[in-house]
Automatic annotation (TrEMBL), chain A:
Described function: Methylates the carboxyl group of the C-terminal leucine residue of protein phosphatase 2A catalytic subunits to form alpha-leucine ester residues.
EC number(s) on file: 2.1.1.233
Originating organism: Lachancea thermotolerans (strain ATCC 56472 / CBS 6340 / NRRL Y-8284)
Lineage: Eukaryota, Fungi, Dikarya, Ascomycota, Saccharomycotina
Top EC category: transferase
Gene Ontology terms, MF aspect: protein C-terminal leucine carboxyl O-methyltransferase activity
BP terms from Gene Ontology: methylation
Protein name as catalogued: Leucine carboxyl methyltransferase 1
Family listed: Belongs to the methyltransferase superfamily. LCMT family.
Repeat among keywords: no
UniProtKB/TrEMBL annotation, chain B:
Keyword annotations: Hydrolase, Manganese, Metal-binding, Protein phosphatase
Organism of provenance: Lachancea thermotolerans (strain ATCC 56472 / CBS 6340 / NRRL Y-8284)
Family per similarity comment: Belongs to the PPP phosphatase family.
EC number(s) from the headed UniProt entry: 3.1.3.16
PROSITE patterns per record: SER_THR_PHOSPHATASE
UniProt-listed InterPro entries: Calcineurin-like_PHP, Metallo-depent_PP-like, PPA2-like, Ser/Thr-sp_prot-phosphatase
Domain Serine/threonine specific protein phosphatases: 107-112
Catalytic activity as recorded in UniProt: O-phospho-L-seryl-[protein] + H2O = L-seryl-[protein] + phosphate; O-phospho-L-threonyl-[protein] + H2O = L-threonyl-[protein] + phosphate
Name under which the protein is recorded: Serine/threonine-protein phosphatase
Cofactor section: Mn(2+)
One cellular component term from this protein's GO annotations in UniProt: protein serine/threonine phosphatase complex
Amino acid sequence: MDRAVQETDYDAFSCKVSAIAKHYLPRQVSGKEKEEGEFVQLHMAYAQGLKSVSRRAYSKVDRAVQSAQPVMNYGTYLRSVAIDEAIACFLKEHVKSGAEAPVQVVNLGCGSDLRMTQMLSQVPHLKWLDLDFKESVALKSRILENNPLFQRELGPSESVETAGYLTNRYCLTSCDLNDIAQVAEILKKFTTQDCPTLVLSECVLCYMKSAESKALINCIESFYKMGTWISYDPIGGDDSADKFGKIMQTNLRESRHLEMPTLMVYNSPEKYAQRFNTAPHSTSIVTMWQYYVQSVPDEEKMRLKTLQFLDEIEELEIILSHYILAEASWR
Amino acid sequence: MKVDETIALLRQGKQVSEETVYTLCLRSQELLMSEANVTRVDTPVTICGDIHGQLHDLLTLFDKSGGVENNKYVFLGDFVDRGFYSLESFLLLLCYKLRYPDRITMIRGNHETRQITKVYGFYDEIVRKYGNSNVWRYCCEVFDYLSLGAVVDGQVFCVHGGLSPNVTTVNQIRAIERKQEVPHEGAMCDLLWSDPDEVSTWSLSPRGAGFLFGRNEVDQFLHCNGLELIARAHQLVMEGYKEMFGGGLVTVWSAPNYCYRCGNVAAVLRIEDGLSREYMIFEAVQAQDDVGNAIIPTKKPQMDYFL
Ligand SMILES: C[S@@+](CC[C@H](N)C(=O)[O-])C[C@H]1O[C@@H](n2cnc3c(N)ncnc32)[C@H](O)[C@@H]1O
């Protein structure tokens, strides 16, 4: 079961690599060409690292990249860009130029997410905590340690654990999010309670049971004085005529032995938003379809269209309407 | 090659030899070559939308609509891509056509092209199943000979996508040089790519090929050609079919639970003598083998979800 959940990281990573190979990612913003180049380099370096550390994992990624279709590339682009934008928005609010006020990010179920690399070099007073299962952390830290590019960007690791990475601003360490005592201990050890905190869960809460995810949310929201939770997840759909979620559960169970226990519980944007206990005016949620229609600039839409023939807008809408990005703030 | 034996194999989703596919494609080409760009068909007939390699659902379609032994069918294209059994679905239709030439009309869809099948799965399926792309090439040759439309009893115009600003009469379609890869623009492209929409005139399509057309364009085309209905496919409809513009156009979609994940039902449209319309709705079935065990495709590509 845990293994099936851990392996979803290869899916997330291979989707990203595919979207890069087909030039969906990085998003193009004029004046950001240098960052865009770095983004590609970092991901290619990580993929190479994966190849030398785990052939098995690499071949999974490689196969998935070969067959990724436009709908998946679109969805990956939107997921990545929407989260980046939400993070940028948080930082803009809390990082005052010149001031020494620190901010921190806690990335729950970080998997192979490489956001920390560029963020840490762009935002001087940022601290970043990456958490995942032990096996995933072991894999990631080996890749980071073996590669000069990551060494240069992150600085050398002082971690005494074999599975982990530690510098004065970046910490990657293993933690089972279902174990609340462990979570609390790690937050205490590596983060500061009264510093503005961004909590990120990208396709992570969906693999947890309802009670455990509730406990995790409560624990984190009561620990930090002020924070913003950014969460990306699938939702099952709440209309009795909408079978998407049920079919998804069956498909994933049959093909991957993978469970999404709360897909049909927090099955609408409204219900998903409510799980954060935050005030309604400081909680917002959009489906990825809404994000595509409302927030992607026309030039980007045009650019995406030229990358591959997207044959089916209706299908894209159905799928993207079942993934959301929630932002919930408390203080 | 014995057509009946091949049909039996295909119906079970079993692999047929490269030589068989070659012969089948060659004979189909000869048959299709003699067909006009726009075929004439008589009622009663069953009009079917996109299939997309969902072989088991195609079998359900035949089952529930009476079968090719007793009925005529028009298929509006998109036989291949997306599903796990593109090859078997396409070959089965070709076999039926060879076996019962006047009962099966196959119209070309926007997926029946070399370029699109390379992106949307048919090419990969062939390489997975045969270890090389020969069979894909044979099939693509057949694609180039598929017709572009059909007219039922002089009244119902059948096409995969829709209308084109370059086409005002059905006769103009008859004059197109169709035996080629679908071009990126022009009449032939539009017929395969366009969509109806609530627009007041020809508009850009979000798909990047073809156009959007509205009620005006449909009314005009119907009037100009003495037609009653445009039957087309090309767009997923959750309810299986959707009539628009006061019943002047219908979209028919025949791939239930599209891509094994969309949760939609499918439909076919039966047109009787006297042009009455009847829709038959059907749902996806779990594929089963001879003894009733669920078939989960073994060489299945990755699951298409964001995880
Ligand atoms: C789909 S991946 C997402 C990875 C990353 N957030 C991204 O989007 O690229 C899910 C990740 O969550 C981790 N995860 C799920 N449940 C967890 C738990 N209870 N404790 C720690 N990590 C967990 C998995 O190991 C996996 O790396």
